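Hello,

Following up on my earlier ticket. Below are the two sequence lines again, exactly as submitted.
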Amino acid sequence: PATTTATFVAVCILVDSRCISSSADLVSGLRQHHSINVHVCSLDGSYFVLSNRMAAERHSQSELAGMQNRKRLVERVNSLQGLFERVCFIVEKDSTKPGEVGRPFQRTRYFDSTLASLVQVGVRLLWSDGVRDSARLLADLAQLEQRKGQAITVPLEVRGHHRQQALQFYLALPGVGYVHALHMCHNFISIAQFITSSVEAIQKGGMMSCNRAEDIYRCIRYSCDSFLLNTSTAKKKR
Amino acid sequence: MESKAQTLLNAAPPYGHIIALEKWRDSAILENIKGAGVKVVFEKEMGVVDFFLPNRSCVLYISEGDIVAGNSYKRKLVRFRHANSSRVQELVVVERTRLSEQYFSSLQKFVVFDLGLTLLPVSGQTESSQLISQMVHSQGRDNPFRRRSVARLYEPQLLLLLQQIPGVGGVKASSLLHSFSSLQELCSARLPQLEPLVGSAAAQHIHSFLHNPLV
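Thanks for your patience. The regenerated structure is below:
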């Protein structure tokens, strides 16, 4: 459903609680200079949720240029692409501490091949000079998504013990991110109602893509194999 | 003109090759690309595209001079955006130098936000040739970020999911799934069916967790 483009509605961005310590300046910049309603919650990585379908993560240039970060980066891209239709990387110039002489960034072949691979899988790249620039980019992206009717408008408060537990339950479903789970908490009368829903009802109730809803529908009706149940050690989901 | 570009794209350059606009023939950028083992084919007319790369991507190159000189590159960008079909990956390589730096932020906004294209900054022709050759070479390699097909075996995930229900741990989750096999069947179970499996207290918890109203 398209939201009105009224500019007085503060745009909402969700941030992971880890961002509060690692990106304190950024978060306060978003609040003070861009009038963004920043809501802190517990996500599965330190990233920003900008709309129902878009997330952004900050990476420094040297992080993308370091071969030793490859495994972690692959995990981050896979997990974000599993939860969001649109994934943005904000590539930030490395910050220098006061008094320190900044070394110019050495652009390696490895850096370029990483960029090529990221672009190929559809990760959107944005280039930032530093914290203030990143805050502006995040605010602009969230506002753009608002104009496209994708803003986070679901109530962010989850009151009561039972609803909190339901939120955690929804989050443990495949491909369900925090915003989907919030929508589901507010749109399904009970968990039983969700479990007996059609693909269309799941799609509508979770404000999600059809593919995502189909995947969840399959999971609900999936008949477990007792041999596989015995061999499945409870591995971490993400 | 656009249709010419279209036919060129349909005859996309094979792996290890690029098609370049004639005007780049003697440039440093192409010398370096060739030096990196990429074969170059020249064309006189390619619409607004500067380079076609394998695997359906094309590059529009915006030099420092274009940016400093003013606005004509904007029209070029718009034509670039409209000339190519959505199946093509459109890349805009931009020279971000000390001279063009002050325009970069608004250029990025225009290219990425307004036009929805991919922007890749380079410091000059040397960096851009390294970038383009890496893009060509990476087509032949396995992309590490490409998602492996998602497993369709949900047993581990369902075991974890059930443990989100208060009072249910690993052992109870496993015994519930052994008896009911799917989440849907568990949901339609009545209290007397749950009690012998997990005890009356947990059965009560599970039943009310699933059926109590949330809204």
